[in-house]
Design a protein that fits this description.
heterodimer; A: 320 residues; alpha+beta; Uridine Diphospho-n-acetylenolpyruvylglucosamine Reductase, domain 2; Enolase-like, domain 1; 5-stranded antiparallel beta sheet; 3-stranded parallel beta sheet; 11 strands; 32% helix; B: 697 residues; Aldehyde Oxidoreductase, domain 3; Aldehyde Oxidoreductase, domain 4; 3 domains; globular
């Protein structure tokens, strides 16, 4: 780990100023400190943002909930109203790391975390994502890697919350250039689709303030499969959200995690669901649409049948 | 034959660990807890090349870094390194940060060499050689008995299978390392070790110091599983740094380093052909196996074989058999003994083949075992376990469980020695105030051996275990064996019995109290006046024996859509002679089973063929079972006091993975022939995805 300065910001704008060109925002630190220790990330300055007022609030609303970037995963998991209004978000939070990690990890950190690709995370491998020449996962052990990508890097997005929030069609509110800028979840990650060195669309200095979640989808669900039963990354995750009236599904959104550098959604799949009865046949057709064009690598083809199962189970959970 | 009391008062009762309170309150002092005046931190520079010729190591800049007090090279002059992570040099400084900065300042001139890290690649004739003077894969050793080819023709059923296991890392909770003080009196090393004597001898030899000038202390340690016998390169480096710095040095490895250079269990690639007569009698066995022990292929290491050869056909007798085994060297860290070396791997291969054969014969796999297992003890254990587990009710034809989540059951068995070391010595000191101290130069590696000693002493002296102070883990005490081979309890218990029996006799003789035990104890001790009584004892016959069986039953649920395996229950039936303390014994069983679950479902060192590194040098992607992965573990200990004390640390780990693998095969109706059984492999076995091209991944 290289020496760095440490500063505590008391306002959003002072955080931005303090971060400068090569500063990093520090909240829970789960991802950032590990990267610093393993020499994956260098920082000239860490800017502690935990003291900025207002970023740690959960604010319910009839049309929209606001969840601050400093809210911990445990707070999301334990919030009884979130459990009722956004059950998929609750389920996604409950699957993050371990209890100790959830106690300190924040919403913002979970969304902005870097790839967990074991080539990227290895201190002595200079891979494409670290501005090296090649993606080692392409010819190497890619059991945890993506089925879809728009570039050469095949490391997938692994944020659980990103997948749940994509299904809920949340908006990320980011402080950029002195003002609030609103992004869909797709926009929050789209840069990683094209750019192998990107993990999300946030630029240096961008500060995630909160997410806003519309309440128009009262049904939501999140499921993941890991090698282990707890404290493990998802191999594939799936989230869905919708409104159900008279047994028919409306305004549905479904997303897959760990199969693409971005939360994987297919507009046609969402459209196909409109007005349908939720049954296995419908779910299988949605799976066809979501997985069309998947490009499995040597060791990750298992993600396709796994994703099919998760898509079906997640959608059927929406029936309640 | 046993001299143990026929009606014990303490032996066999559930005695909580005597050091439990110290451990849960943080009072117990582990190696990394040792604080000394002027203590420096030591850190190691490791090869970033999987193979290279090291031409020159320049430590000058590192030595001049702020806070750095010493820097040493592992070896002077040119040398060849053969794996990523091999030790090159080390520094000692006032902080971890200072050391990290100094390691970066070390200049290495090296020529990278070609390397190979996957077994199947290393076996190719044109593969880079790990050792230039020898092929990576030597010709197999062949053992042949009977007429194998003719015997297969006489069989009613023959199966062939290819069963593979991954390289498993020890990953003890406490990493390898030690704290070394080197002054005029010599070397004092607080080591995280399973063998204080072997660390002392290793340090004395490497540093050319009299053994009498080296003292090794291990008050508490957090597991070793076979990987912590000698001082290791890291221990010798710590001592050299302490000498150069003129200050004590603590050098504990990081979790990252644990994955590289301090041992592992070799992989296996087992091709098995097994045939039986129509009644299930095993008749013919043909076997080919290779595995890798890294750069140390085939070499046994201290404390047991770290080699890749397996005891086959394991617990069964097959009259006609041909066994071919070899190893294959790769550019990776060397294997070391690992909890029952060879046995869990052999058990997985053989017990898998047995179940596949049972399917072919149309037999209940438990019946096939009862038919062929020559061990009387295991015959008992099959009956007891089957009853307890409900085998008859639970066993169904393979794959016949309804629904997408299928349940299955499996059974597998173990054999182990577990006898004590005849050379164990000990002493007991009885103080005039009645307090008692038992001292042995062994170590409690976390298994509860201290408690075993306290129980035995309390039994002999008519006291309570908490009245006994047990001192272990110091080479100044009378010597005992390293903790390998499950020998510690059967070494310690007879020795403590002997010392305490002699001490009691001496006390009674000296004080004239005819029976000093129990309520007479304090009065008798008071008569000692001012001089404590110190009595030596040694291991003696008749209090321990060797040779245990062990049978485990597993029940699993397998999600055929996602591939996820859930272990629902394990029933363990295990003999270990006289059960000294059921609590510590059951704790051993729990640990062995949980480690077996890891071997079965999660654990695998992953090497990258392109860069030669270990890709999962952490607990994040080297997956160990957590609480949510641990099922109900139902333990039946067969108490056989007449056999005396026998070790059980290793046998209870052996059959778990094989039983789980058989249960998965029973659930699915197809076998997943490769450990760990991950969702990916389950889906592949079910034909839901194409099998991966490479057998190693």
């Amino acid at each position: 780990m290289k020496p760095f300065e440490y500063a505590t910001a008391l306002t959003v704008e002072s955080a931005r100023q303090l971060a400068g060109a090569n500063g990093h925002y520090l909240a829970g630190g789960n991802d950032l400190l590990g990267r610093l220790k393993d020499d994956i990330t260098e920082a000239s300055r860490l800017v502690n943002i935990k003291a900025i007022p207002g970023l740690n609030r959960i604010e319910p609303g009839p049309q929209t909930w606001r969840i601050g970037a400093l809210v911990t995963i445990a707070q999301i998991e334990d919030h009884p109203e979130i459990r009722r209004v956004f059950p998929g978000l609750h389920q996604a939070a409950a699957e993050v790391g371990s209890q100790q990690i959830r106690n300190v990890a924040t919403l913002g950190g979970n969304l902005a975390q870097h790839s967990r690709c074991w080539y990227y995370r290895h201190r002595d491998i200079q891979c494409l994502k670290k501005r090296g020449r090649i993606c080692y996962a392409l010819e190497g052990d890619n059991r945890y890697h993506a089925l879809f990508t728009g570039n050469v890097c095949i490391s997938p997005v692994v944020s659980n919350l990103a997948i749940a929030l994509t299904a809920l069609d949340a908006t990320a509110v980011v402080w950029r250039d002195g003002q609030e800028r609103r992004m869909t979840m797709a926009e929050l990650y789209e840069l990683a689709w094209d750019n192998p060195t990107a993990h999300h669309s946030l630029r240096p200095g961008d500060l995630l303030l909160r997410v806003e979640i519309p309440t128009v989808r009262p049904r939501s669900a999140y499921l993941q499969i890991s090698d282990k039963h707890s404290f493990d990354w998802a191999l594939v995750s799936c989230a869905a959200a919708a409104r159900i009236e008279n047994g028919r599904i409306h305004n549905a959104r479904i997303a897959l995690g760990c199969v693409s550098p971005v939360p994987h959604q297919v507009t046609a799949a969402n459209q196909f669901l409109e007005g349908k009865n939720l049954d296995e046949a419908t779910a299988d057709q949605v799976a066809d649409l979501l997985l069309a064009g998947a490009q499995p690598q040597e060791h990750n083809a298992y993600k396709i049948p796994m994703a099919r199962a998760l898509i079906r189970r997640t959608l059927l959970q929406l029936r309640g | 034959m046993s001299e143990w009391p026929a009606q014990p008062k303490v032996l066999g009762t559930r005695v909580p660990r005597v050091d439990g309170p110290a451990k849960v309150t943080g009072q117990a002092r582990y190696t990394s807890d040792v604080q000394l005046e002027g203590l420096l931190i030591g850190m190691i520079l490791r090869s970033k090349w999987p193979a290279a010729r090291i031409l020159r190591i320049n430590l000058d800049k590192a030595r001049k870094m702020p806070g750095i007090k010493a820097a040493v090279a592992v070896q002077d002059g040119p040398r060849i390194v053969r794996y990523y992570g091999e030790e090159l040099a080390a520094v000692a400084g006032v902080s971890r940060q200072a050391c990290e900065d100094a390691l970066r300042a070390i200049e290495i001139e090296a020529e990278p060499l070609p390397f190979v890290v996957r077994e199947e690649d290393a076996r190719k004739p044109d593969a880079p050689r790990v050792w230039e003077q020898a092929p990576n894969a030597p010709p197999p050793r062949v053992q042949e008995t009977g007429n194998v080819d003719a015997a297969f023709a006489e069989c009613a059923a023959v199966i062939e299978g290819f069963y593979t296991t991954a390289v498993q890392l020890h990953h003890p909770m406490e990493t390898h390392g030690c704290t070394v003080l080197w002054n005029d009196e010599g070397i004092t090393a607080w080591a995280s070790t399973q063998g204080i004597s072997s660390v002392r001898d290793g340090l004395a030899g490497a540093l050319r110091v009299d053994q009498s000038k080296v003292r090794v202390i291990t008050e508490h340690m957090g597991g070793g599983f076979g990987s912590k016998f000698g001082p290791g390169v890291e221990g010798i480096l710590a001592a050299r740094l302490a000498r150069e710095a003129g200050a004590p040095v603590k050098l504990m490895l990081s979790r990252f380093e644990e994955a590289l250079a301090v041992g592992n269990r070799p992989s296996s690639f087992q091709r098995i052909k097994l045939g039986a007569k129509a009644d299930g009698t095993l008749h013919a066995f043909e076997y080919e196996n290779y595995g890798t022990a890294g750069v140390g292929a085939g070499q046994a290491t201290e404390g047991g074989g770290g080699g890749a050869d397996l005891p086959m056909p394991y617990i069964y007798r097959v009259p006609n058999r041909r066994i071919k085994q070899t190893t294959v060297a790769i550019n990776a860290g060397s294997a070391r003994a690992f909890r029952a070396p060879g046995h869990p791997v052999a058990s997985f291969g053989m017990e898998s083949a047995m179940d596949d054969l049972a399917v072919k014969l149309g037999m209940d796999p438990l019946e096939l075992r009862i038919k062929n297992d020559p061990s009387e003890i295991r015959q008992r254990e099959y009956r007891i376990g089957a009853e307890r587990f409900g085998w008859k009710e639970k066993y169904r034809k393979p794959g016949s469980s309804p629904g997408p989540v299928k349940v299955g059951v499996g059974v597998a068995s173990a054999t182990w020695g577990g006898g004590g070391s005849r050379r164990t010595q000990g002493e007991v000191q009885i103080n005039p105030d009645g307090s008692v101290e038992v001292r042995l130069g062994v170590q409690d590696i976390g298994t509860g051996t201290r408690t075993v000693a306290a129980v035995v002493a309390a039994e002999v002296l008519g006291l309570k275990p908490e009245q006994i102070t047990v001192k272990f883990g110091d080479t100044r005490f009378p010597p005992g064996p390293g903790s390998g081979g499950s020998v510690t309890s059967p070494s310690v218990a007879p020795t403590v019995f002997d010392a305490c029996t002699r001490a009691l006799e001496q006390l009674q003789k000296q004080t004239g109290v005819p029976d000093a035990r129990g309520e007479n104890w304090r009065a008798a001790c008071k008569k000692l006046g001012v001089t404590p009584l110190v009595v030596q004892g040694q291991w003696r016959e008749g209090l321990s024996s060797s040779g245990v069986g062990g049978v485990q039953f597993a029940e699993v649920a397998v999600d055929t859509e996602t591939g996820l395996v859930t272990v629902k229950k394990i029933v363990v039936v295990q003999d270990c002679g006289l059960v000294v303390d059921p609590l510590t014994a059951e704790s051993q069983v729990n640990g062995g089973v949980i480690m077996g679950i890891g071997f079965a479902l999660y654990e695998e060192r992953v090497m990258d063929w392109q860069t030669g590194v270990v890709l999962n040098p952490n607990y994040e992607t080297y997956k160990l079972p957590g609480l949510a992965d641990v099922p109900e573990i139902d333990i039946v200990l067969l108490n056989m006091p007449e056999r005396g004390v026998i070790g059980l640390g290793e046998p209870v780990h052996i059959p778990t993975a094989a039983a789980i693998a058989n249960a998965v095969a029973n659930a699915l109706g197809v076998r997943v022939p490769s450990l760990p059984i991950t969702p990916r492999k389950v889906l592949a076995a079910l034909g839901k995805i194409p099998a991966p091209k490479s057998s190693a991944a």
